[in-house]
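batch job 7 of whatever, protein = GTPase domain-containing protein
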Amino acid sequence: MALVNQAKREINAKIVFFGPGQAGKGTSLRHVFNKLKPEFRGALKVMSVQGARMLFFDFTPPGDGNVDGFRVRFHLYTVSGPLVDPAAWKMVLKGADGVVFVADSAPQRLDDNKTALDQLVEYLKGYGQSLTTIPSILQYNKSDLADPASLGQLEQQLNPSGLVSFKTSSQTGEGVLQGLMALVKSILTGLRAKGAEAIGNGEGLQHMVESPAPVAAPAPPVRETPSVAPVSVQPPPAPAAPVVPATPPEADLSLEIAGDPVATGDVVRVPLTIRSGSREKTVVLTLSLGLSEE
């Protein structure tokens, strides 16, 4: 879900590169980063998430990349590694405004592609989304192999919905930038149809700020008990609201990510929720990152 920054007059949208391990997601993202002029992009950062490597950077498209006078900044994410914990993918996909599914064109990886696509569909379903409700493209990577799977095979197995697809090579860069720009154009069209005001009123904006601490209700006044002999009376009916048991003094603490990390320059802010029994508190963890050379 796109987020509006009123102070900077910016709309922040997220694009996720998803696919099976070693299909070329990270290489594709790095190619895009290297092709964009420095004045249009931020730094490429690497962050450890659930034992995998999350790569991300942001850029603003040149030309008419605005909505109602708001500049649109795109944040590109992927998670690389042979095996990625589903929790890492779910965190990265939360609030996505566009998806690039990177398939491996090697014939022996057709089953891996289908498994990864089914996982993507399941993860998006958990957020009430699908590949047809948010802008999505298919990137048939490694098309420069000596004997890649045919386009007909890939389309039949991976593209029953008829999404826009591109034959690409993340090593040479063929088709990668063209596919991304087509997705960016689709996202911008959708944002302009909504308008900046409608986007800003969305619930996603709440993930950018820390939730205020709950204010305790004032205690009822204490009435002095008169010194009279006890009288047998019918007690008043019990209140309708359920009584919440007190949190045990030894309640376990739990920590979970409450929303999407927001990268600004070299600083990444991660909203976290701390829970202890029935009590919870949302805080924002601020991390200062440096560029990792790998």
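notes: The domain at 3-203 is CATH 3.40.50.300 (Rossmann fold).
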